[in-house]
Amino acid sequence: ETALRAQAVQLLTFAATSDRHPADIGWTLAQHRAALEHRAVVVAADRDTFLAGLDAVATGEPATHVVSGVAPEEPPSGVVFVFPGQGSQWVGMAAELLDTSPVFAESIDQCAQALAPHIEWNLLDVLRETSDGSALEQVEVVQPALWAVMVSLAQVWRSLGIEPSAVIGHSQGEIAAACAAGALSLDDGARLVALRSRLIAQELAGHGGMVSLATSSDQARELLTGRDDVWIATVNGPTSTVIAGTPTGLAEVTAAAENAGLRTRTIPVDYASHTPHVERIREQLLQLAAPITPHAGDVP
Length: 300
Hints:
Elements: H1 2-17, H2 22-32, E1 38-42, H3 47-59, E2 66-70, E3 79-83, H4 95-100, H5 102-115, H6 123-128, H7 139-159, E4 164-169, H8 173-181, H9 186-203, E5 209-213, H10 217-223, E6 230-237, E7 240-245, H11 247-259, E8 264-267, H12 282-289
Parallel strand pairs: 3-4
Antiparallel strand pairs: 1-2, 5-7, 5-8, 6-7
């Protein structure tokens, strides 16, 4: 670890004074330096972020765009597909791929057909609408749309020879992961994601929200001490925690977090997912999922 920090100091000095593009430096590090046991990765889109990340590695301070750790003696082989939850959407997502990737377009069409019996809107119309993002603000639209995009992106990777050795999903991403693994058929995945999101819209939407805090779960828990209206919803990483609860409670906790110098981001969700709020739809969820036939799957 000491040597890793020393290497970061040396690299920071070089990068701060060199006219080399960060991408060139990254390529050389990845291709021509030994992959030793202690490692760190800086994710950066510009020079300032790159330098800030190197400084974090050099000082041992946590940063949201820096990942460090110790590699196992025998690193696992293969690729894992990770499917995210709601909040990863943006207006215009998939529009370009629909025109440039026949594999993606065919998969989206199959998803649209599977969704059709359960929805009153058109998947392709939503994905191609780049001027008005109002549709993606509706949970009963955005969740099926994201599911279709994730399932279809997996098909694109597979068409390029990238086969997952395992899949994992978070929240609604679990449904996409189950489809990619073969544990759910496309029709069953479409039924589950469409009817589940409609139930959320009918019973939960408008009564809560979610906020991402750039801090550890321990510090987030301290902010929630004594409250019964906001909970930790997900722990996405050592310095990334999502809280959820009532709008009033979230506003108060968010203000306290910002006063403490923490960066916050409101997630485009209007209900308190992954909290006791969702318990009210448990029995209805079980009923709508009853006709589904799960399979063993062919990917862990």
